[in-house]
Amino acid sequence: MPDLDPVIHAQARLRITAALATLDAGEAITFPRLQHVLGMTAGNLSTHLRKLEDAEYVAVSKTIEGRSPATYIQLTRLGRRRFEDYTASLKNLLGGTP
């Protein structure tokens, strides 16, 4: 039986990585936009992003736009690879081809 990445496997983190994987490599999304897309509270999203960031699956960058702070999130190369491995393992587990 294939191992499923425990960092991604938590429902909220799976939703986050799946949403970020829809972006082109190197493309980022703002924190409020990701929060809206996922329907998560800011605290819950922050907690799960921290775990993904600690695993180096996502990159979080903070900037100033005009006079307002902006936070951008993107899937790292490692995160994209781990998400692809995760989905392949899941397909294999469900009886599909890896």
UniProtKB/TrEMBL annotation:
<dbReference type="InterPro" id="IPR036388">
    <property type="entry name" value="WH-like_DNA-bd_sf"/>
</dbReference>
<feature type="domain" description="Winged helix DNA-binding">
    <location>
        <begin position="18"/>
        <end position="94"/>
    </location>
</feature>
<dbReference type="InterPro" id="IPR036390">
    <property type="entry name" value="WH_DNA-bd_sf"/>
</dbReference>
<dbReference type="GO" id="GO:0003677">
    <property type="term" value="F:DNA binding"/>
</dbReference>
<dbReference type="InterPro" id="IPR027395">
    <property type="entry name" value="WH_DNA-bd_dom"/>
</dbReference>
<keyword id="KW-0238">DNA-binding</keyword>
<protein>
    <submittedName>
        <fullName>Winged helix DNA-binding domain-containing protein</fullName>
    </submittedName>
</protein>
<dbReference type="Pfam" id="PF13601">
    <property type="entry name" value="HTH_34"/>
</dbReference>
